[in-house]
């Protein structure tokens, strides 16, 4: 008989409502109305299936990971893990590197940056638009400079 992994604890995957209803029917539990969560196992192998707010899927929550989008986006414990696994503390992060803080200056005074003065002469583009032939010529020239021919 072929064995099939239904719930993978190492990498949890979101389950459909239909799949969880079939699991509840197999366990002999009612699925009408949909339960907000279903606990499976105990100890290290404990898994909690949590109904999403849209009620279209069940997120698989373990002590180490959750299949909800928030856990994937934030790369850390989500609200489901904090609620159903409060005894598991977040892994300690390495100490942050403390740097000397200087006051933030959004801009420098004008006398400190003379290069930032605006010219009073308006600049006007008076060159003609390049033709397709000009564009092709400069493109080929740039390609030849970037990829020189190697003589055999």
Count of beta strands: 4
Q: State the helicity in percent bands.
A: 25-40%
Task: Provide the spatial order of strands within the biggest beta sheet.
Answer: 1-4-3-2
Shape: elongated
Low-confidence sequence ranges: none
Number of helical runs? 4
Assembly type: single chain
Helix and strand pattern:
EHEEEHHH
Largest sheet: 4 strands, antiparallel
* Overall residue-averaged pLDDT value: 76
Radius of gyration: 31 Å
Structural class category: alpha+beta
Task: For the structure shown, list the relevant keywords.
alpha+beta; 25% helix; 4 strands; 11% strand
Task: Describe the 3D structure.
The structure is a single chain. This protein is of the alpha+beta class. It has a domain at 15-84. It has four helices and four strands, in the order βαβββααα. The protein has helices at residues 17-27, 69-74, 79-84, 132-146, and strands spanning 15-16, 37-40, 47-51, 57-61. The chain has a four-stranded antiparallel β-sheet. The protein is elongated. 10% of the residues are buried.
Secondary structure layout:
Blueprint: E1 15-16, H1 17-27, E2 37-40, E3 47-51, E4 57-61, H2 69-74, H3 79-84, H4 132-146
Antiparallel strand pairs: 1-4, 2-3, 3-4
Quickly describe the structure:
The protein has about 150 residues and is an alpha+beta fold. Helices cover about 25% and strands about 10% of the residues.
């Amino acid at each position: 008989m072929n064995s099939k992994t239904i719930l993978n604890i190492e990498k949890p995957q979101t389950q459909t409502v239909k799949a969880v209803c079939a699991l509840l029917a197999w366990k002999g539990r009612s699925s009408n109305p949909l339960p907000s969560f279903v606990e499976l196992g105990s100890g290290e192998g404990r898994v909690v299936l949590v109904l999403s707010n849209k009620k279209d899927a069940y997120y698989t929550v373990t002590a180490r990971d959750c299949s909800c989008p928030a856990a994937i986006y934030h790369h850390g414990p989500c609200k489901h893990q904090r609620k159903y696994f409060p005894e598991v503390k977040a892994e300690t992060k390495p100490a942050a590197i403390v740097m000397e803080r200087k006051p933030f200056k959004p801009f420098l005074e004008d006398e400190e940056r003379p290069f930032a003065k605006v010219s009073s002469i308006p600049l006007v583009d008076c060159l003609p638009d390049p033709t397709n032939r000009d564009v092709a010529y400069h493109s080929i020239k740039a390609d030849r400079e970037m990829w020189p021919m190697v003589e055999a």
